[in-house]
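Re: that chain you flagged

S.,

Sorry for the slow reply, it's been a week of failed gels. I finally had a moment to sit down with the sequence you sent. For the record, here it is as I used it:
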Amino acid sequence: MIDPLASASQIAASGLRAQSTRLRIVAENLANAQSTGTTPGADPYVRKTVSFESVLDRTIDAASVKVKALGVDNAPFRLEHDPSHPAADENGNVKMPNVNPIIEMADLRETTRSYEANLQVIKRVRNMFSTTIDLLRNS
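Prediction finished late last night. Pasting the structure tokens below so you have them in one place:
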């Protein structure tokens, strides 16, 4: 027999792991939002992405979430005119990363909320375990 409280805890833990990876990628994107190439015409930092998948976990007989793949965003690079920059091409244009800080901040907010929701599930499950043990002791 599968314990529903343990299953809920494991499902939430898988969500925590997935959102932790997503948070790391968002932080990396934000940290490199201005990282250009070092030589004329070189490509800058490329925005990374995370995709998830639902996987049946046979040990708990329920679906959990896992990181499916880490990828890159194929959006074009922004061009900025700065002839004095070491990565400027012959026209004085510098390729800037395809990272949009507004999108990254929105992803950060969503990731944080999902992480917190999964953490609350684990806290509730622990409280239920504790209450169950107390009830068993007092009976």
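What I noticed first: The chain has one domain: 4-138.

Talk soon,
D.
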